[in-house]
């Protein structure tokens, strides 16, 4: 079972009280992956919201049918960092792919249906979590923008 001390330090859950954290704790499942193993792919319909429990996860911008390439990594996530926020926001489709970036990684996955039901049952919990999730989504969007700008700048430099 995932302990409350871990959950209260997850960026998306920092404002929750013990009762709210316990409700989330009851939904948590642990999933293990090995280096390079796909957690999910861009374009898939998400079933889970994820948190890195141990190890590292790469979020990548991959070609639909291509392999996961290191140079396509937008960001690397470590312990306590949430991902898979697309499971909570229409159109409910992953925009990036996630792969295990360390020898092994352990993740917490929370079924989207159970989490959304918690939000419906406790609107304050839902508001707090979604407010934090939108901050995370905004940060990831800026990382993606920065990476695109960096690559375009690199392409411009290489053309000269």
Structural account:
With about 160 residues, the protein is of the alpha+beta class. The protein has one domain: Jelly Rolls, CATH 2.60.120.10. It is about 40% helix and about 25% strand. It has helices at about 5-10, 20-25, 110-120, 125-160, and strands at about 30-35, 40, 50-55, 55-60, 75, 80-85, 95-100, 105-110. Strands 1-8-3-6 form a 4-stranded antiparallel β-sheet. A 4-stranded antiparallel β-sheet has the order 2-7-4-5. The N and C termini lie far apart (about 55 Å).
Task: Kindly estimate the percentage of residues that lie in beta strands according to DSSP.
Answer: 15-25%
Parts with pLDDT < 50 across at least 5 consecutive residues: none
Our count of helices gives 4
Order of helices and strands: HHEEEEEEEEHH
SS class: alpha+beta
From the 3D structure, determine the CATH topology.
Jelly Rolls
Oligomer: single chain
* Helix content bin: 25-40%
Number of domains: 1
Q: Class in CATH?
A: Mainly Beta
User: How far apart are the termini?
Assistant: 56 Å
Largest sheet: 4 strands, antiparallel
CATH second-level architecture: Sandwich
Strand tally is: 8
Coarse shape: globular
Average pLDDT confidence is: 88
The CATH homologous superfamily name equals: Jelly Rolls
Q: Rg, please?
A: 16 Å
**Physical arrangement of strands within the biggest beta sheet:** 1-8-3-6
């Amino acid at each position: 079972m995932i302990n409350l001390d871990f959950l209260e330090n997850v960026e998306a859950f920092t404002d929750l009280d013990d009762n709210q954290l316990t409700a989330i704790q009851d939904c948590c499942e642990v999933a293990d992956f090995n280096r390079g193993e796909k957690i999910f792919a861009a374009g898939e319909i998400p079933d889970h919201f994820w948190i890195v429990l141990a190890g590292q996860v790469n979020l990548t911008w991959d070609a639909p049918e291509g392999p996961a390439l290191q140079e396509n990594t937008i960001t690397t996530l470590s312990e306590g960092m949430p991902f898979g926020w697309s499971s909570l926001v229409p159109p409910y489709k992953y925009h990036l792919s996630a792969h295990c970036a360390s020898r092994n990684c352990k993740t917490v996955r929370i079924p989207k249906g159970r989490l959304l039901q918690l939000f419906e049952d406790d609107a304050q919990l839902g508001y707090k979590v979604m407010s934090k999730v939108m901050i995370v989504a905004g940060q990831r969007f800026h990382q993606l923008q920065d990476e695109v700008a960096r690559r375009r700048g690199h392409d411009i430099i290489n053309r000269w």
